[in-house]
UniProtKB/TrEMBL annotation:
InterPro entries: TPPII_C_art (IPR022232), TPPII_C_sf (IPR046939). It comes from the Eukaryota. Residues 219-234 have a biased composition (Low complexity). Residues 30-96 form the Tripeptidyl peptidase II C-terminal domain. This is Tripeptidyl peptidase II C-terminal domain-containing protein. Pfam families: TPPII_C.
Length: 350
């Protein structure tokens, strides 16, 4: 007898969903709060009031001088440096939103220092280097903290984590802006590639990532930023992947090599963020969107845009852009046709 076996092959698709949220409850140990002296409370209140005015002044001479004055007395106070970082980011956004070139030029002349991605990265590094990620991870990895001042320590650690995430978000977005400049072949603003003295400590924290080849760097060649640059050269002596290139070796580095180094730093930031929070956290969702776009993962960017809080009209326009990049012309056309209904320019009179 002859037995004939037919082999059938069925395609299988795996869709990986979001990781389940971790709900942890820490027992709160009540303690008797020691009242601060009135002079100390007044001192802290005046400090916090001045810090709040740094963001209001922005990068005008008043705001910069106030920041420099407070740095002399509160060099290690993280909210102070974060306020200056936020003022730099908001000033950069205001410059971009200016449509009148004359008004934009007048606004730039009012600034004490130029707002560039490099300046934002330098300020963010100042904050990141002041926060110990190892201590934060060790604390949040502890199941129960039975110390008598556990609630106070937890409050301090949560504040440090929030400040660290904001700094990582701003640094990552600024690095991605530099990537777009390199892709378009434009000159880098004031000093070129960002150099930072804190990068050695940062590379030590993420030394484990150098052995891991998975990560986010598997990008299709047609969507990679590296495809826009054809020039190739050797890496300067003493410079490793993911490290900042100092200004003295900048002239010997080609755009293609710079793109690789900036992409490596962007990946390090992504690895650091996912240690502390989910990517749809409002503090880091902007970086998550930009990271997905840089890596050519536009569907992932769409998912983050839908979860983003803010102007609904801007979100719709952003969705149209991402749909077109994916080639989903039917989805882009549907959103465009619904725009006049969702956001009418004016209402009909009764």
């Amino acid at each position: 007898n002859i037995c004939i076996i037919f082999q059938e092959v069925y395609p299988v698709r795996f869709i990986v969903g979001d990781a389940p949220k971790k709900h942890t409850t820490t027992p709160v140990v009540k303690e008797k709060e020691q009242k601060k002296p009135e002079e100390a409370e007044l001192h802290d209140a005046v400090r916090d009031l001045k810090i709040s005015w740094i963001t209001k002044f922005g990068l005008r001479p008043e705001g910069v001088s106030l920041y420099q004055e407070l740095c002399k007395s509160y060099e290690d106070h993280l909210p102070l440096h974060l306020a200056h970082l936020n003022s730099m980011v908001s000033s950069l956004k205001e410059q971009k939103e200016k449509t009148d070139l004359k008004n934009a030029k007048e606004e730039v002349e009012k600034l004490e220092e130029p707002v560039t991605p490099k300046a934002i990265i330098s300020q963010a590094d100042k904050i990141i280097s002041s926060v110990s990620e190892t201590e934060l991870l060790a604390f949040f990895g502890t199941k129960h903290d039975m110390r008598h001042d556990a609630s106070k320590i937890r409050s301090s650690m949560e504040k440090q984590r929030a400040i660290l995430l904001e700094a990582l978000n701003h640094k990552g977005c600024s690095l991605i802006k530099l990537l777009s400049l390199l892709k378009e072949g434009k000159p880098l603003p004031s000093g070129g590639y960002p150099s930072s003295t804190q990068e050695e400590s940062r590379s030590e924290r993420f030394s484990h990532t150098s052995s891991s080849k998975q990560s986010f760097q598997d990008v299709p060649s047609e969507t990679s930023l590296e495809s826009s640059v054809t020039e190739v050269t050797t890496r300067p002596q003493g410079v490793q992947a993911g490290e900042s290139i100092e200004n003295d070796s900048f002239d010997s580095v080609t755009p293609r090599l710079l793109i690789k180094d900036v992409l490596a730093q962007v990946d390090l930031i992504m690895h650091s963020i996912v240690k502390f929070t989910e990517l749809h956290d409002p503090k880091v969702i902007q970086f998550a969107i930009e990271h997905a776009k840089v890596m050519g993962q536009y569907a992932r960017a769409i998912r983050f845009v839908k979860k983003q809080e803010g102007n609904a009209k801007e979100q719709e326009l952003h969705m149209i852009e991402l749909y077109e990049r994916l080639g989903w012309t039917h989805a882009a056309a549907a959103v465009k046709s619904a725009m006049p209904i969702k956001f009418p320019p004016s209402y009909q009179p009764f």
